[in-house]
Amino acid sequence: MKSMIHCLVTVALVVAAGSASAQPAPGPAAPAPAPGSAATPTAGSATPAAGSATPAAGSATPAGSATPAEGSAAGSATPTAGSADGSAAPAAGSAASPTGAPGTATKPAAGIAWYDVLANKPIEEKGTFWMPKSVNSAADDSDLMFYSVLALSAFFFFAILIVVIYLTWKYRHRPGHKPQPSPAHHDALEITWTVIPTIIVVFLFWYGWRSYIHVVTPPQKAVEIQVLAWRWNWQFTHANGVTDSDLHVPAGVPVRLVMTSKDVLHSFYAPAMRVKQDIVPRRYTYAWFLATKPGTYRLTCAEYCGTSHAQMACQDVDKHTGACLRRAVVVVHAPGDYERYLADKQSEMMNLPPEQLGKMVYEKKGCNACHTIDGSARVGPTFQHDWGTSIKLSDGSTITMDENYIRESLMSPQAKARPGYPPSMPSFQGQLKEKEIEGIIAFIKSLK
Q1: CATH number at residue 251
Q2: What proportions of the chain, in percent to the nearest 5, are helix, strand and coil?
Q3: Are both 206 and 290 inside the same structural domain?
Q4: Residue 2, H or E segment
């Protein structure tokens, strides 16, 4: 038995020594290429495959070496483990991971703006069973109220249930037991079950009323954003005229939303902000919050508004199934980045070629929720192959789809409607700049 154990130990030592000798020592022998250097191997070059003699994870990387740490800026030149081309994939958890699970090193699409990369990041959903973690300074009171009422309700429910079950069992009818006389009056008991619940209810009312007044009274110096809702999209208009379907706000600064609808009832709901406010046609409603943590958070419409309610403000649609891949979100910017977003977004809108600007408007204004560009019909007619052709209208007449028709359809959608489609398209009168209208025309023209 001892000889067998000795033999096994010897074999293990030999194998361990052999595997250790095959591992090159980290350091100068295999320096990481500098970002953007010509030494980065191209696809098809002799890059070692996964499982080759690459230093194992957790090896002693010298401090200050060229290997970027986890969470470093996008564009680091360190090849990902097992990559076949050795391309400069960003490190795990970097800002260039707009999609996928947190920590994946997904390279952003070429030409995508940095603020769209933030909007495409996975939504932060960490929290309790009941709600995501709050990132609104005004939400602590409402959370405390919620959990207090929940705890009180659970306590009294189970307390009363246990007492009822116990008394039912104790005073059940049994042979040889005569019923006992019931007490008619008990001052101490009646005072107790009257005074204690009254104190609890009055305290809950006072605390809830104080919290409500705080929630509905925005600070004087708040960033004001105009919100317009329609079927089925959001439009957020900032102070410098920039519009977007995603809500971008600064962290650490109060934000006031002035909201209205152009068609039916909607409801602005941002769970992480604990903000939910109905949006009513032909009147204004208001909400405010102070975001405390930069990140990407869920935004949804909480009022059923028609066929595509579940796809409200869909930003990306699967071409094969029509399923919504990403909806509008709330993006909370770190200090200074919100001002940068406003400047860069305005510059982008003014400098894009007409066709690209039209495509951006098509996606940001929610046109893709109703109109496809692949020939398939949805809520509205497709844009593919219609440019320059004669199309039939609901009254039986025909018209050529040209610049005049598209412009009129944007301003007065029902003036020359197509047969077989519901009259659900809203008017964009006063919501599109002249350059954006020209961009939409150029984009549809490119689909012929």
Answers
A1: 2.60.40.420
A2: 30, 15, 50
A3: yes
A4: helix 2-21
* 100 domain residue, yes or no: no
Domain extent, residue 116, equals 112-169+197-351
282-321 pLDDT, tens digit each: 999 999 999 999 999 999 999 999 888 888 888 777 777 8
Q: Is residue 57 part of a domain?
A: no
| CA angle, 94 then 48 then 12, to 5° | 100
291 and 230 assigned to the same domain: yes
382 in the same domain as 343:
no
**How is residue 98 written in tokens?**
């707009």
Helix (H, G, I), strand (E, B) or coil at 293: coil
What does the pLDDT look like over 347-363, one tens digit per residue? 887 777 788 788 878 87
Among candidate residues 316, 351, 386, the one where a domain is terminated = 351
Q: Give the per-residue SS3 of 266-279.
A: EEEEEHHHCEEEEE
Distance, in Å, from the CA atom of 72 to the CA atom of 311, rounded to the nearest integer, reads 34
201 and 266 in a single domain? The answer is: yes
- The encoded tokens of residue 72 equal 């470093």
Q: Tell me the helices (H) and strands (E) count for the chain, helix number first.
A: 8, 15
Nearest of 13, 79, 14 to residue 52 by alpha carbon: 79
Q: Which two tokens stand for residue 95?
A: 């800002």
Question: What residue type is 368 in one-letter code?
Answer: N
244: DSSP letter: E
Q: Which residues contact 169 (CB under 8 A, 6 or more apart)?
A: none
Note the pLDDT tens digit of each residue in 40-52. Answer: 333 333 333 333 3
**Shared domain check, 393 and 300:** no
- On whether both 347 and 410 belong to a single domain, the answer is no
Structural contact between residues 269 and 276, judged by C-beta atoms closer than 8 angstroms: yes
Residue 185: alpha-carbon gap to chain centroid: 60
| DSSP one-letter string for 321-373 | T--EEEE-EEEEEPTTHHHHHHHHHHHHHHHS-HHHHHHHHHHHTTGGGT--S
pLDDT band at 82, cuts 50/70/90?
Answer: very low
User: Which domain CATH number covers 424?
Assistant: 1.10.760.10
Domains in the chain, number:
2
One domain for residues 376 and 295: no
Answering whether pTM is above 0.85, one says no
Q: Say yes or no: 287 and 247 in one domain.
A: yes
Say how far apart CA 181 and CA 200 lie, in whole Å.
33
Residue range 371-393: mean pLDDT, rounded: 82
227 lies in some domain? yes
Q: Pick 7 or 60 by higher pLDDT.
A: 7
Question: Is residue 116 within 8 Å of 98, Cβ to Cβ?
Answer: yes
CA 79, distance to chain mean position in Å, is 29
